[in-house]
Write a structure and sequence with these properties.
By secondary structure, the chain is α/β, with parallel strands linked by helices. Helices cover 49% and strands 11% of the residues. Keywords: Isomerase.
């Protein structure tokens, strides 16, 4: 147990209303996926779609750490023109995809089949056993998120849900479900931000620290 535990404890200290959320269990689930070569898929609607892209932004490049390439990786670039500069600018990443980022694909799926299928289609195509789906819906009942979660389970993936406080349809398909202590959409979103920042920082420490 390294510095990631200090990040976890700081979160519990700073956000006592969230201290009983299953943060450590979610961290272990995500870390196991990372260490086994898995990737993280993320999806949400509206403000949660922005959270989806935000999470991926923190995972795919340096968040709190620089994440320089190891020397053996830099060596592979050495014989390229400008390779030393290129390898010096690259950062190590945790493979993650925001399923909200593909406008043409989402609108094609929505138009050709159903808007409820915009995430399920991507999960089916991208998803593999060992991957994790982070599914964000403040109500817990958004049909397109639920269909994505169902598909993830069929693909052998783990599902990490983030919802409001009420029991929801999504929770039935989650391995871990964060139920933020509010039924107000904006408040759930406010709690969600420090939650995923903490998970991203913990993962970064464990993988690159």
């Amino acid at each position: 147990m390294g510095r990631e535990y200090a990040v976890y404890e700081k979160f519990r200290e700073d956000y006592p209303v969230l201290r009983d959320q299953p943060v450590w269990a979610a961290f272990e689930l995500l870390l196991q996926s990372c260490r086994s070569g898995g990737k993280i898929l993320v999806c949400g609607n509206g403000g949660s779609a922005s959270d989806s892209e935000h999470i991926v932004g923190e995972l795919m490049k340096g968040f709190l750490l620089k994440r320089e390439l190891p020397d053996e990786e830099k060596e592979k670039f050495r014989n390229l023109e400008g390779g030393e500069t290129l390898s010096g600018r690259l950062q190590q990443g945790i493979p993650a995809i925001s399923l909200n980022s593909y406008t043409s694909l989402m609108t094609a799926v929505g138009n050709d089949t159903s808007f409820d299928m915009i995430f399920a289609q991507q999960v089916y195509a991208y998803g593999q056993k060992g991957d994790v789906l982070i599914a964000i819906t403040t109500s817990g009942n958004s049909a397109n998120i639920v269909e994505g979660a169902k598909t993830a389970k069929v693909k052998g993936m783990k599902v990490l849900g983030i919802t409001g406080e009420k029991e929801s349809v999504l929770s039935k398909y989650c391995d871990i479900c964060f139920r933020m202590p509010s039924a107000e959409t904006y408040r759930v979103q406010e709690y969600t931000l420090p939650l995923y920042h903490t998970l991203c920082a913990m993962l970064e420490e464990a993988v690159f620290g």
